[in-house]
Structure formats: structure tokens, C-alpha cells
Write a structure and sequence with these properties.
alpha/beta, Beta-lactamase, 2 domains, 5-stranded antiparallel β-sheet, 11 helices, globular
């Protein structure tokens, strides 16, 4: 298996900003905020810069980088394209038995989830299949397994956002751990994998059922224990609490996906007798079933709405594999950089390490981002589809609970944007997208904020409020052009 290492693609050009058309007073606390900011607002119809501060300063974009990946994937793979996950077998098949291996060839469908696998297992059961005597072979050649951080193999993780990549992605290469209170005070809580127990995964339940006042923060940590993965759950859950699910990145996506397959098949009465094996599709396989993903537009919409890193990086590498048959971290980053250059000549330094924005080494300017958005808005055939993928302010995705302050409701219906957040200190908050202005029409905007560590470091909530009130001030103004 391969380690996903940092790959930088950079460029640098000189930029002359030109005039600013909106009123010049600072609207994003530029002089007082303990954060580096790169901000720009452009009018789409002619590309005029209407407001800017440090527009060519490259900063960490966090998940707003996904807007570039969204455009590249939508154009490169097509709005209605569906990706295929192939289920095949070796050997021979009789009425209820396959005397051979089950082979799954991953096609880069990042939204292959429990419901997908349940339907496949159910369909095969209804076709009479009951036993597979051989191994379960998982072929990830299209997108070789890549781990986000080599250190996770040793120390484990308490998060889901750093899950590894692979061509056969099952439940975003994560485990779901359900926690619910026990029947009486002092008894162990109910802690189990959802929806079924998985081969090679151990649950260490140290959570007790407590009164509401005695409840403690619940922690779920995934780490290796020999050749198995162990999920340790600690804390105390209130007896009247609702069940909660915790998602944790798998360490080995081959073993995790294979365990899911064996569990779902077993639940539908189909036994896979052999082991879970990573390998290439044998030459003598026979078709069993092909699963087709949701359309590319649906996959990209989910990527932007839920800001899922696995979705973004798998789709980017699937785009490369569509032309070359396989992909690497380098090829994905290079393809994204080339795509960005094809949209607008780069006028400031751009450094890319992934397509999701997870890597803190990514750097891009507000001017580059608004240039990209403006270019997309001028594509009459593509823009309607592209715009529809963005979350709506106050409506869905990561913008569901944003723009709730006084007066902000006036612009909620006019904003489609992607958020970006890196919560570790110093934190990063970004907002990139489109604002429909009553006088100027569509505006492309990019607000990148990288907090400076120290006693005055702003919180994420404070940065969000500055973004929202600043856009509202822009919304209220009329340009002098």
C-alpha cells in the first residue's frame, strides 16, 4: 500500500490589481483582525474587481479548494456519467455456489455506502447464491491505496476526515460506531459497529450509563492491535440521551471494505469462506454484477455539501485514471493545476498538495479563486449545473446554520458558496462562491482568513461573523462603474 505524501505544484506571476469600484471603507476588519486575509469580489459580467484586500496573497483555502475539484470533475467526467464497481468471480458457479473467488474491481465511486452493498447482497441472495468458497479479492489498481498520514498507522485517529483513499471506497473508508445508554444507571452503554460487527475490528467499551449531570464527553479512538483494528470508547452517556454515531477513519481500506462485504453478504445468507486479499483482477473472471454510481453531478454536490475529503480526492484521481487507467497523488495534483491554468492565467503563486484542501500546505489567493469562478460563470452550457452544486446560505450543507444574524436573512437566498475550515490553532476559515447583487448581477467572491496564533487569535465563530457581515455590507452597496 502507498502512503499519500505531499506533492507541491506551484506557479508565480506578478499581479496588478487595478481599481476598486465599491466604497473603500474596510468591511472585513482588515486593520484590527489578528488574521492574514485575502479577499476579493468580482463582477461576473465583465470581470471587474469591485472590492479587494490583499487579493494576490496566497493563503490556506481549506475545503474551499474543493470548488476547483468540483469544476474539474464536472467538466472532465461529465454531468451524467456514472462510475462502475464490478463484482466478478473466478472458478465455476452452480445453482447456489461459486467454487472460486469473489473479485471486486473498484471504479472510484466515492459514494458507495451501506445501502449500495445491502442492495447488491440482497440481489445476489434473490438469485440463489449462498456460498463462495474462495477468497474475497479487492482490486484497487485504478486508485492505489493511499494513506493520509503515515503516523496514523502508529498512533491511530479519533476523526473521519483523514480516511485513506482507494478505488473501492466503502462508507468513505470509515467505521461507524453507535453509542446509546444502557437500561439502568451504572451499566455499560450500548456500543457497537453500525450496522453489523466486522471481521478484524474489536470494540473496547468503557462507557458507563450515568445521570444527566454525571455524563462525560464521549471519545472514540481507532488504533491498531496486532493485525486487528481496535475502537476504544470512553466517557459516560446520560441515561436519557439519544443514540449517537461516531465515524472514524479505517487504517486499512482493503480490510475494512472486505469486512463490510463479508458482513453484508452474511446477513443476507451468503457465506464467503476465504480471506480478504488485495490484488489485481485475475484474467479468467466471469461477470456477476455491475453497480453504477449516482451521476457525477450528484457525487460532486455531495462533496461540496458535506465537504467530504475522500469524495474530493477520489473523484480527482478518478478523473486522471479515466485517461491513464490509474492515478497517483502527483497526477491528481498536476491535473488540477493544469485545469486551473486553463480557466484563467494565474496571477499569483498557487501551491497544491491535494484536491480536498485538507493539507495545510495548500496555498491560493482570493484573486485566483474569483478568476476561476468568473470563468465558470461565463460558460453558458456549464454554469447552471455548476452553480446548482453549491450549498445555499442558511439552507443546506455546511451553510445550513450560517447567515442568521440581523439583516443577514436578506441575502441568504442570494448566496451559493463553499466553506473551508481548519479548526486546529491557528485556525483557518474561508468562504468562496457567488452572491447575486440587486444592481451588479452575479458577483464572484473569495474570503480567505488564516488566524495568527496568540492571545488575540479569533475563534471560528468570530471569523464566520466577519465573513457574513462583510458580505452584507457589499450587498448593500452600489458600485460607481
Amino acid at each position: 500500500m502507498r502512503i499519500l505524501y505531499r506533492v507541491a505544484v506551484s506557479s508565480f506571476f506578478v499581479f496588478n490589481m487595478g481599481c476598486i469600484a465599491f466604497a473603500k471603507p474596510k468591511v472585513f476588519q482588515e486593520d484590527t483582525l489578528a488574521a492574514d486575509q485575502s479577499i476579493e469580489v468580482r463582477r461576473v459580467k465583465d470581470g471587474k474587481v469591485l472590492y479587494a484586500t490583499n487579493p494576490d496573497s496566497p493563503l490556506m483555502p481549506a475545503s474551499t479548494l474543493k470548488v476547483l475539484t468540483a469544476g474539474a470533475v464536472l467538466e472532465g467526467l461529465g454531468t451524467f456519467r456514472k462510475l462502475e464497481t464490478k463484482f466478478l468471480h473466478t472458478g465455476t458457479r452452480t445453482a447456489d455456489r461459486i467454487s472460486g473467488d469473489l473479485v471486486i474491481v473498484g471504479g472510484g465511486d466515492p459514494l458507495f455506502v451501506s445501502e449500495s452493498l445491502w442492495q447488491i447482497a440482497r440481489d445476489l441472495h434473490n438469485q440463489g447464491l449462498r456460498t463462495i468458497t474462495g477468497n474475497l479479492i479487492i482490486d484497487n489498481q485504478m486508485i492505489p491505496v493511499q494513506k493520509r498520514d503515515e503516523a496514523l498507522q502508529k498512533k491511530g485517529t479519533n476523526s473521519a476526515y483523514d480516511a485513506p483513499l482507494s478505488a473501492f471506497v466503502m462508507n468513505f473508508n470509515t467505521y461507524a460506531v453507535l453509542v446509546a445508554p444502557g437500561a439502568t444507571l451504572g451499566t455499560p452503554a450500548h456500543v457497537q459497529l453500525d450496522p453489523y460487527p466486522l471481521e478484524g475490528v474489536i470494540i473496547d467499551n468503557q462507557i458507563k450509563t450515568s445521570s444527566t449531570k454525571a455524563s462525560k464527553k464521549i471519545e472514540v479512538y481507532r488504533h491498531k492491535q496486532g493485525d486487528k483494528e481496535k475502537l476504544s470508547a470512553t466517557g459516560a452517556v446520560a441515561i436519557d440521551a439519544e443514540a449517537v454515531k461516531f465515524y472514524r477513519a479505517a487504517e486499512d481500506p482493503v480490510q475494512a471494505a472486505g469486512a463490510y462485504v463479508k458482513a453484508f453478504f452474511a446477513h443476507e445468507g451468503i457465506t464467503i469462506q476465504g480471506q480478504i486479499v488485495a490484488g489485481a483482477q485475475p484474467p479468467s473472471t466471469k461477470p456477476l454484477m455491475i453497480w453504477k454510481s449516482e451521476p457525477i453531478s450528484t457525487l460532486v454536490r455531495a462533496m461540496l455539501a458535506y465537504s467530504n475529503n475522500v469524495l474530493a480526492d477520489v473523484l480527482l484521481q478518478r478523473l486522471v485514471a479515466d485517461k491513464t487507467g490509474s492515478s497517483t497523488p502527483e497526477s491528481g495534483v498536476q491535473a488540477l493545476h493544469a485545469y486551473l491554468q486553463s480557466k484563467e492565467p494565474l496571477t499569483s503563486r498557487v501551491t497544491l498538495h491535494d484536491g480536498s484542501g485538507l493539507d495545510r500546505g495548500n496555498a491560493i489567493s482570493a484573486h485566483t479563486l474569483t478568476g476561476f469562478l468568473t470563468s465558470m460563470a461565463r460558460d453558458e452550457l456549464l454554469f447552471a449545473d455548476f452553480l446548482s452544486l453549491f450549498p445555499a446560505a442558511g439552507g443546506n450543507g455546511s451553510l445550513r446554520n450560517r447567515f442568521k444574524g440581523n439583516g443577514l436573512k436578506d441575502i441568504k437566498a442570494n448566496i451559493r458558496a463553499k466553506t473551508g475550515t481548519l479548526a486546529q490553532s491557528p485556525c483557518t476559515a474561508s468562504l468562496v462562491g457567488y452572491l447575486f447583487h440587486p444592481k451588479e448581477g452575479w458577483l464572484a467572491f473569495a474570503i480567505l482568513q488564516n488566524a495568527k496564533a496568540g492571545r488575540k487569535e479569533p475563534t471560528l465563530d468570530e471569523l464566520h461573523q466577519i465573513q457574513e457581515t462583510g458580505l452584507y455590507k457589499i450587498f448593500e452597496q452600489e458600485s460607481d462603474i
